[in-house]
Specification:
2 domains, globular, binds FE2/S2 (inorganic) cluster
């Protein structure tokens, strides 16, 4: 349970808020690379951490991320077009370079002042199929390498969905292994269903929290999983049904404080990954879930009940959207009652509060990497296995 002030501290991410300043110390996804591939001349609007921005490629294919609203009289630059001067506004044709400089003010006869105009601009890179941006002050930190950027493109599966709630409750869902047997219980999750009281331990790591979950299985065996909370808004875990030797990251990137993008980044080292059959059934071309708050997740009560199925199809995304969106646009954590099964959530909040304090004190927060780091996160262990009981103790 949190106080109202603590809940606000962890959930408000606008510029100048404690958590907003924390989030801005880390590279954050702003788009899938497929949304703005090399050669694209179609800028896209990006709202992140409450800031309205536009992402574009100039004629040299360099990425720019600048303020959405034109410095002249505020028109939306994502409707603009690309030419040799950069991104040009549709309204009166002012143009902007990727660093936010105004490069042209055509038709102004009584003296231009373009050299005094500068839109806010943020560095961004296209890496591993994801466009990452750094919105913080000072020198950008080293980009962590979680593994997906080190495999061939065909070994990655990159997706995203829009969620209509604060980022934190969704990330807390990822580090709550206990819910899987209940909310997602269906054919294919037998190893989770076999033991409803798993033994769960957490330990601090350089990146956040490692969660070890051990479930008893019939025949003197155990199902052991290591998943992680990664500072400040992502998590990693295995996806046994379709990934052999890699894992999945869920990265919850605030749009505003009441909506966010969930980036789903999966990879395996040894073989290509295919999009699961039910993905396009569940998600439309605008990355919106077809089952959503407005239609009560199309719950089919003839299919629902017990621990068999939620009655919301077989894809976990709709189940998790139900779980997190119905907590409220911002969950009221003054009214929660955490149990021993929520230990990873408690630990992750401690990491966030400590990191917020570090930023306020002028220090780098946990998991902000600096040279000579090459970005590799040595203690990120994400795996799962069925073993003989006690073999890993
Ligand atoms: S509003 Fe963009 S050029 Fe006038
Ligand atoms: Fe889930």
């Amino acid at each position: 349970m949190l106080t109202p002030e603590q809940n606000a501290t962890l959930t408000q991410t606008g510029k100048g808020t404690p958590c907003g300043e924390l989030m801005r110390r880390y590279w954050q996804p702003v788009a899938l690379s497929s949304e703005i591939p090399p050669g694209s001349r179609s800028p896209i609007p990006v709202t992140i951490l409450g800031e309205e921005l536009v992402l574009f490629r100039d004629t040299a294919d360099r990425l720019g991320l600048i303020e959405l609203h034109c410095q002249h009289r505020g028109a939306d630059l994502s409707y603009g077009f690309i030419d040799a001067c950069g991104l040009r506004c549709l309204y009166h044709s002012w143009a902007y370079a990727i660093d936010g400089r105004c490069t042209d003010q055509p038709g102004i006869t009584a003296g231009t002042f373009k050299d005094h105009i500068r839109a806010a601009a943020y560095p961004c890179v296209d890496i591993g199929g994801v466009v990452l941006a750094y919105l913080g002050p000072g020198e950008p930190s080293v980009i962590p390498r979680y593994g997906f950027s080190d495999v061939p493109a065909e070994n990655r599966l990159l997706r995203k969905v829009l969620l209509d709630c604060n980022y934190l409750q969704s990330n807390e869902g990822n580090i709550d292994p206990h819910h899987v047997a209940f909310l997602h219980g269906q054919p294919g999750t037998e190893a989770f269903n076999a033991d409803l009281s798993p033994r769960m331990t957490v330990e601090p790591t350089s990146h956040g929290v490692r969660i070890t979950t051990v479930r008893n299985l019939p025949g003197d065996r155990e199902y052991v999983r290591h998943s992680n909370f990664i500072m400040p808004n992502l998590s990693s875990f295995t996806s046994d049904s379709y990934i052999e030797d890699g894992f999945t990251i869920h990265w919850h990137v605030p749009i505003t404080d009441t909506s966010h993008w969930k980036y789903l980044i999966s990879f395996q080292r040894s073989a290509p990954l295919a999009t699961p059959d039910d993905w396009m059934i569940e998600v439309d071309e605008f990355y919106r879930l077809r089952r959503n708050r407005a239609n009560r997740y199309l719950q089919d009560r003839t299919q629902a009940g017990g621990r068999v199925t939620a009655g919301m199809g077989t894809n976990f995304q709709a189940h998790d959207a139900f779980a997190t969106e119905t907590q409220g646009y911002i969950q009221n954590r003054t009214r929660e009652h955490l149990t021993a099964m929520d230990v990873a959530i408690t630990q992750s909040r401690k990491c966030l509060f400590n990191a917020i304090d570090a930023v306020a004190a002028g220090r780098d927060p946990q998991h902000v990497l600096r040279p000579p780091s090459d970005g590799i996160v040595d203690d990120l262990i994400t795996d799962s296995a069925i073993v003989t009981a006690g073999a890993l103790r």
